[in-house]
Amino acid sequence: MRNDVPISEQYRLAALDWVTQDATARLLEEGKTTYLAQRKAALGDIPDSKAEKLVKSSPDWADYIKKMVAAKTAANRQKVEVEFLRMRFMERNSEEATNRAERRM
Fold first, then answer.
1. What does 22-35 look like in DSSP terms, one character per residue?
2. pLDDT > 70: percent of the chain
3. CA–CA distance, 97 with 85 (Å, rounded to integer)
């Protein structure tokens, strides 16, 4: 974090990053059912339960799940950064109010 950049701008940039990362995570989460259906369909005319078992035991499925979890983790980390900036702003406001009150005494 740079002290020469206002907290409001740091917050805006961090929030935009979070929105992008959250969108990536949500797309993967929402696409999970579609991805599974596409993979099962690619196996041809076999029972659904067998197709699901084959897909979910594949390295591709494991990679998809890992990618989905990693994306959500990245989004959550960025959300923590956004909240940290909000707290810094509140702390600074409180400190400035305290300083003003002390100067009036």
1. HHHHHHHHHHHHHH
2. 97
3. 18
9-65 per-position pLDDT tens digit: 999 999 999 999 999 999 999 999 999 999 999 999 999 999 999 999 999 999 999
Q: What is the pLDDT of residue 96?
A: 85
Q: Which amino acid is at 57?
A: S
Instruction: Extract the tokens encoding 94.
Output: 């409180």
Contacts of 103 (CB under 8 A, 6+ apart): none
The full set of domain ranges for the chain reads 7-104
Burial of residue 95, with CB atoms counted within 10 A of its CB: 0-12 exposed, 13-18 middle, 19 or more buried: exposed
For the entire predicted model, the pTM comes to 0.77
- Strand, coil or helix: what is 5? coil
